[in-house]
Amino acid sequence: MKRFRWLPMPVHSVLLFVVWLLLNNTLAPGHLVLGAFLALAIPLLCAPLQTPQPIVHRPLLAIRYAFRVLGDIVVANIEVALLVMGPMRKLRPSFVAVPLDITSDLPLTVLASTVSLTPGTVSAELSDDQRWLYVHALHLTDEQALIETIKTRYEAPLKEIFAC
């Protein structure tokens, strides 16, 4: 989509205009003018604040990744429910440091969010040099298996999706 300097985010402008009219529930001339003004002014003011984001190079793989994560969430919910219903003394919570190959902000955020979305694991912290993701596991039987699962199931596809 071609962008004009006076209209840096055309989709946002249209959405702002439509939402303004819907919120006010009127097509009065004053609201049309004010909505148009806001739809032009707000994106102009916000455009310098935008940071470039990495491009999704493999959108079909991203869709497959989303379905994989949804499936893992369902399976992990069942596993966590069975663990919690059992005796608590059998749980072995632990922290694991996962070495990272990706360094871009958005893929790192998606990876950390994916780990946190999957029940039984939570992304606790990202190291200052962004080379390690610290993960808390509710029940850890094999540290290396968890690291390999995160790296092969989640990090490797993200590297392909964002070409990093």
Automatic annotation (TrEMBL):
It comes from the Bacteria. It is found in: Cell membrane. Keywords: Cell membrane, Membrane, Transmembrane, Transmembrane helix. The keyword Cell membrane applies. GO terms for molecular function: monoatomic cation transmembrane transporter activity. GO terms for cellular component: plasma membrane. It is a multi-pass membrane protein. Belongs to the CPA3 antiporters (TC 2.A.63) subunit E family. This is Na+/H+ antiporter subunit E. The lineage of its organism: Bacteria, Pseudomonadati, Pseudomonadota, Gammaproteobacteria, Oceanospirillales.
